[in-house]
Write a structure and sequence with these properties.
This protein is mainly beta and 450 residues long. The protein has one helix and 37 strands.
Length: 450
């Protein structure tokens, strides 16, 4: 090689290396929000996925469950410089293709580029027609966006004091449910915050739903039903026009504060009780929900070779199927606990076992007993909060004299209590389950794995 050619090669290398180094220093793509955040099953929908780094060269999207496919639509490079944790990111277009039989619910996904796999974002699969928030002003009753239910409205509280109004027509006697997905469709988003620093940083949208009559007066309101997401069930008192107000309870906003509000008069279920069944068994369960067509119970069936773990199952009603509810298929026997409101009436457990119960009233405490062997380790774990139920559980453990010897509270990233215990001696021990705030009600259902 001549000196001239060698010098030219070195010069070319010097140009290439910085660009290669700049690309390779990006460890992963930080996905922000998805708009619209919901797609109707059986449809192809164009969505925007925001990212703090470029998604150019995306060749595949990975979902946590099979069925949905997404195709990258951009044909030209889009600049996407990193702008800091609190920024909304740069949008990139994808086409989501959802099969008609796709299970309903929230899905997590990651985008694969030629150099990295992204962080997580979310997509909600709904059975209702999706309507996007209008680009026109909808910040007052006078400018409320008109919709008809059943519907899944996809919107955004993008700025401080952003309030969104929607209007619909209803009939006297109609029972409607209004269910917002906000925290549930952004909670795994990397760096989910509104910007700022210190005390000014606000994580996740804290939604509040307000229903108003035709005269603008408030007739129903809810805050914090499933975590920070709100829910309303209301029987319309008269024919006419109704207005739904959606906002963050703190009046803050950010382009990451995307949401989906489902409005419907169709069957809706929060849970079944018990919510666990032993593999290969059949049991009756009470249905907790709305617009159920008069049914109060359903039959849970499990086949002998059914996979273990949590699954989502719709409940059949005379008015059609509900949304899916969560049911545990366990390898261990399941008992339904009732009347065990004192240590003297503790229900004896033969481990391993699952205990299913409901804290029906405020200040209610449930007791169980078991025989322990000295030096043996025992695990007690609650499932409730992770199943979109309100119980903030606490587990207390007592010896045979009634002396408290151990307790367990929040597990890893959950309000579900967990307790690991090494028995100091042979003998009978007692386990109690209660709500941290002494609450109770029909949705305070739990499964205790012992």
């Amino acid at each position: 090689m001549t000196l001239g050619r060698f010098s030219a090669a070195i010069a070319t290398l010097c140009v290439l290396v910085p660009s290669l180094q700049a690309e390779s220093t990006i460890g992963f793509r930080q996905l922000c929000s998805t708009t619209p955040v919901a797609v109707q099953r059986g449809k192809k929908t164009t969505i925007n996925v925001r990212s703090n780094y470029t998604l150019d060269g995306s060749y595949r999207v990975f979902f946590d469950r099979p069925g949905i496919t997404m195709k990258f639509l951009e044909t030209k490079p889009i600049p996407a410089p990193h702008q800091g944790r609190g920024t909304p990111g740069t949008p990139f277009r994808f086409e989501a293709d959802v099969p008609a039989n796709q299970p309903l619910g929230i899905y997590e996904f990651r985008v694969a580029t030629k150099t990295a796999v992204s962080s997580v974002s979310h997509l909600l699969v709904t059975s209702y027609p999706v309507v996007n928030e209008s680009k026109d002003d909808n910040g007052s009753i006078e400018t409320a966006q008109e919709v008809s239910f059943p519907v899944a409205i996809c919107g955004m509280c993008g700025n401080a004091e952003d309030v969104d109004f929607y209007q619909f027509t209803g009939k006297a006697g109609q029972n409607i449910t209004i269910n917002i997905y906000a925290q549930r469709v952004t909670k795994a988003v990397h760096s989910m915050q509104s910007g700022g620093s210190g005390a000014s940083v606000m994580y996740l949208m804290d939604s509040i739903l307000t229903l108003r009559g035709s005269n603008g007066q408030v007739i129903a309101e809810n805050d914090n039903f499933v975590g920070g997401d709100s829910f309303l069930s209301y029987k319309l008192p008269e024919d006419g026009r109704y207005f739904l107000e959606v906002r963050d309870t703190r009046f803050i906003g950010n382009p990451k504060y995307v949401y989906c509000v489902e409005i419907s008069d169709q069957p809706f279920a929060h849970a079944v009780f018990p919510m666990a069944i032993q593999r290969g068994q059949t049991t009756q369960a009470t249905v907790v929900g709305h617009n159920l067509g008069g049914i109060e119970t359903t039959t849970l069936k499990s086949v002998a070779d059914e996979p273990l773990g949590w699954k989502r199952l719709p409940v059949k009603t005379p008015r059609g199927h509900t949304n899916p509810v969560q049911v545990l298929v366990s390898a261990h026997p399941q008992v339904v606990a009732t009347g065990n409101h004192s240590m003297a009436r503790a229900i004896p457990l033969t481990l391993p076992v699952g205990a299913n119960a409901r804290l029906s009233k405020p200040d209610e405490v449930h007791y169980y007993s078991f025989e322990a062997k000295k030096g043996q380790y025992y695990l007690f774990e609650i499932e409730s909060d992770r199943r979109d139920l309100p119980l903030d559980s606490v587990i207390d453990l007592f010896d045979s004299s009634g002396k408290k010897v151990a307790d367990g509270d929040d597990g890893y990233y959950t309000k579900d209590a967990k307790l690991q215990f090494k028995a100091p001696s042979d003998g009978k021990f007692f386990v109690s389950v209660r709500d941290l705030h002494n609450r109770g009600g029909e949705r305070f259902i739990y499964n205790l794995r012992a």
